[in-house]
């Protein structure tokens, strides 16, 4: 039995390599070696199910019910942003806050709706954070206040604009001492890889 199942979307291979290069550069520059993408690769977390009470197959089936009613859409990356969160577990250096540096995902109606429907499907059994900030993490481990402030200053004008098509949901398992599993659930609105109506952009007004 796995402790955690994370439902994610992931960029295509070339973009993942570009993002890994940014993460590697960041790690070397600030001596941060415990990045959040080391196991499952660069991704956007949709929901994080901890304390699993269902089988993996049951969770996959429920995710598939959502995916079958979803069409492909575009996700847009636009630069770097950050936030800090209270560290309730102490962490490796027992700091008060976890400082998170991430690639910012442009607010997108289709991405927000996908998250909302997943929360509706799983939220009664699992404690899910409803304050959804879609992002691809660059670093959130071993980053103290000094390094965090230095990184924000040095990356203030960093430009990284990319887009990728979201065609499905990845289910990634995590549990101490157990080999991780990953499964891809393709959107039902795009069985052949192209939508009859084209790819949804999900743009908010004023977003290019």
From TrEMBL:
Gene3D superfamilies: Cyclic phosphodiesterase. Pfam families: 2_5_RNA_ligase2 (PF13563). InterPro entries: 2H_phosphoesterase_YjcG-like (IPR050580), Cyclic_Pdiesterase (IPR009097). SUPFAM superfamilies: LigT-like (SSF55144). This is Phosphoesterase HXTX. It comes from mine drainage metagenome.
């Amino acid at each position: 039995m796995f402790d955690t199942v994370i439902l994610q979307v992931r960029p295509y291979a070339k973009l993942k390599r570009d993002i890994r290069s940014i993460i590697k550069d960041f790690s070397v520059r600030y001596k941060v070696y415990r990045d959040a993408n080391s196991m499952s690769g660069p991704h956007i977390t949709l929901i994080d199910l901890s304390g699993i009470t269902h089988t993996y197959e049951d969770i996959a089936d429920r995710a598939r019910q959502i995916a079958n009613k979803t069409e492909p859409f575009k996700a847009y990356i636009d630069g770097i942003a950050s936030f800090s969160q209270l560290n309730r577990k102490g962490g490796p250096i027992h700091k008060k806050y976890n400082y998170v540096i991430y690639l910012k995902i442009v607010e997108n109606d289709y991405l927000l709706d996908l998250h909302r429907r997943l929360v509706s499907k799983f939220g009664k059994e699992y404690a899910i954070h409803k304050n959804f900030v879609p992002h691809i993490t660059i670093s959130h481990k071993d980053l103290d206040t000094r390094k965090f402030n230095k990184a924000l200053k040095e990356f203030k004008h960093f430009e990284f604009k990319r887009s990728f098509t979201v065609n499905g949901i990845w289910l990634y398992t995590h549990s101490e001492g157990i080999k991780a599993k990953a499964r891809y659930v393709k959107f039902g609105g795009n069985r052949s890889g192209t939508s009859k109506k084209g790819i949804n952009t999900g743009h908010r007004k004023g977003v290019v």
